[in-house]
Structure formats: C-alpha cells, structure tokens
Amino acid sequence: MLPPPPPYVEDGPLSPPPFPSQNRPRPSLVTLPPHILLRIVYETFSNGPVKSQRKVLYWLTMNLRLVNRALYIACMHVLRSTYLPAPSSLLPTQSIQRETCVLDLFIALKVREDVWADESELHLEREGSFKDLFDLMQPRARLEDLVRVYGTREGVISLFSSSSSAGTPVISSPSPKKGMSGSMDSRKTNGSTSRVRSSAVPFSALSVSFSPRTVGLVLTTKERKKTIVQVPRTKEESLELSARRLVAELKGWVVANHGV
Hints:
Elements: H1 34-42, H2 50-62, H3 69-83, H4 86-89, H5 99-119, H6 127-154, E1 157-158, H7 180-198, E2 201-202, E3 206-210, E4 214-220, E5 225-232, H8 239-257
Parallel strand pairs: 1-2
Antiparallel strand pairs: 3-4, 4-5
Helix pairs in contact: 1-3, 2-5, 5-6, 6-8
C-alpha cells in the first residue's frame, strides 16, 4: 500500500489546488473581464425617473469613461446603445474609422444638452453645435473613410505607417494578352503595380479638406501640410462618387511623384 500524500503546507513554495496563488496580482476593477465590467456599468442605472438616468449618462461621459481604456470601452458601449441606432451602436470602440469619433462627439454633446435642459428651463439648445457636426465634420469624416476603403483597394493608400510594411494592398492588374507584346505589357503592368504599391501613402498622414464646391486630400509630413489632390464637387454629388474621384486623382499623383 502506498503511503498517504503529504499534507498541504500554507507557507510552502506552492499553494494548494485548484489554482496557485503565488505572485498573483490582487483583483481590481481594471482586471475584471470585460463582460463583468460592462455589467457593473449597467448596474449604475436606477429605475428612477428619466432625469436621474440622464445624470448617470452625463457622469459616464464626463467622468467614468476617462478613468482607463477598459472603462472607456464599457461606457461607450452603453452610451452608443442609448443614443445611436442599432447598427451604429455596434461600431468598434477602437477603430480606424474616423466617422466613429464624430458620432462620439455627438453623444457627448447630446448628453450635456439633455442634462442642462433638465436642470434649467432657461437653457436653450445650441443648434449651431449640431449643425457643425453634421454639415461639416460628419461628411468630412465619412469621406475620409470612403477614401481609405477605395484607396486601399486600388493600392495607393496603406494602413501602415510605412508603405513598405507587409500586407499593403495590391492593385489588381489586368490579365496579360497572348503573344510577345502581351508578355511585355504584362511585365510593364506588374512593374508599375509594384512601384505604386511600394509608394502607397499612409492613411494616417492623409486628411480631407471639405468645402461646398471642392474636396481635396491633404498630406501631412513632419515639415508641412500640403494639398496634393483637389477636385470640384457639386452639392448634389454623393460622397461615394467624390471619394472615387479623389482616389483616381491620388493614383495619378503617386505615379507622377514616384516616377512610375
């Protein structure tokens, strides 16, 4: 018969099962799993009047979400699900989508205006603030996102800080023709594609200049800001069409400036 196992020793090098506790950090609000942290944020709401709930939303906006990244994500999930339609509330909190930032500004402004209106009947909502958001900032950010999508598809915009990073989108070249001339055309096309791809402009350095009659792309470097592409635009023209035209002009700019 085998001897019984030795007794557990509290001061020993290992803690008893099921989990070792040696060198384990103390649990805190920051180390909680995201779903539990989100549940805690939801529990800050009461079943009281709407005014009280708006004050909680104001506290989430102005205070709690600024504590750390985990609380920011949880608070923005609650705020977006409250103030935005269902599809928009599913936007990722940390995203390269620039329109998301404008929507978050709208939420912060809307929360503040609602609470101030509850506090005083003399408060008048400043319509000019919302007008600036949706007449200028939102369409400009939306246009930048469309340029990013179309530009990466064409291979003239890179999502990386360096255009030589791995994973830069490739321009799809036309199928080569048969014969010697077709082979030479294919080599030329592939060479041009490779050079355009290697000189793709990083999206982080691009922004859009937006006005009622023109739109343009502004390239920001360490030395200066420079408008590299500009096209006319009518008021009725869709943002999608403007983005495609900007990308076409950007493709020509990349070719002209990198000797393709």
